[in-house]
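Ticket #4471: structure export looks truncated?
Reporter: QA, pipeline team
Priority: medium

Steps to reproduce: submit the single chain below to the structure queue and open the exported record.
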Amino acid sequence: MAAASPASQLVHGQPAPSIVAHGGDLSGLRAAPGAYAGDWLDLSTGINPFPWPLPDLPAEAWTRLPGADQMAALLDAARQAYGAPAAAGIVAAPGTQAIIQLLPFLLPTSRIAILGPTYAEHAHVWRQAGHDVREIDGVPGGLKDIDVLLAVNPNNPDGRALGLPLLHRWHAELSSRGGWLILDEAFADVAPEVSLCAQAGTPGLVILRSFGKFFGLAGLRLGFMLAPAEMTGTVGVAQGPWAVSGPALQIGAAALKDAAWQAQMRDELRMRSRRFDQGMRERGIHVLGGTALFRLAKVSDAAGFAQALRGQGLHVRIFEKQPQWMRFGLPADEAEFWRRLDLVLRDFSLRD
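Actual output as written to the record:
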């Protein structure tokens, strides 16, 4: 890869549309013949089921274009919440997915390694942009044949966490020869100890942060990229003016400043994830790992079990390349979840 300073413009063209299937959309399930007719419990995403309490917004949040002062307040709140230096480059977007689709167009054609199995959009968008993509099961033994290393930390869907010493070593090696370490920290709010945001803004490091998952406000569409200022500036120009809505600016800034809620919610989610694991063990379901926002289970026939769960209005995430994996978001109504799960288990054999 040529010297990898961020491009002053998108260098490969325009992002391709996504063809990756995602969780969170119940419309097709509800419309299917014989579909469950009651209220569904959607556990197919890793979105916090206990959202930050929305404030009343002034009418002008909806009627006026977003102001530069509001964007500045949001970015300052994000830097502080994520522990990033004041000088770090940062840009907000309508969800980190928007940034994920732009990233491959900011660097020259590269040899990129993606630590997997992980969020499928990453490999998809880099391949579509013409990069040489290899997906690594685990961590690489060395980096000499890699220009860009991308990792989701903690990982989706298994919750694997990479320690700071390893990340520092990778970043130092890659950046010393013009390479890049890209970290998707979409779920780091529940495990802030794994975040590399304290190093944000240094050459060769890109960090993505999602707002909607931990704060339970995915429909708000808000996310951030922290990187060298030239790169974040390029993304800001590519997005154009008013990429983030006025309500998102105000709600995002207020929630990111609410440190007390964040600390309380981390404790709550950890407690609930432990309770979830215990309930699954009692029912003979092996939990492989996850984060405090989702749990990954192993079932011999995950597709069949997921279909049975849909019969009780439970929607979970399954994975084509890992046919024994299924991911559960934490249920808001635990009693109702266990009631429906037990109804399914009366008739479905888990079969080791």
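Status: closed, not a bug. The export was complete when the record was re-opened. Leaving a note from the reviewer for reference: The radius of gyration is 21 Å.
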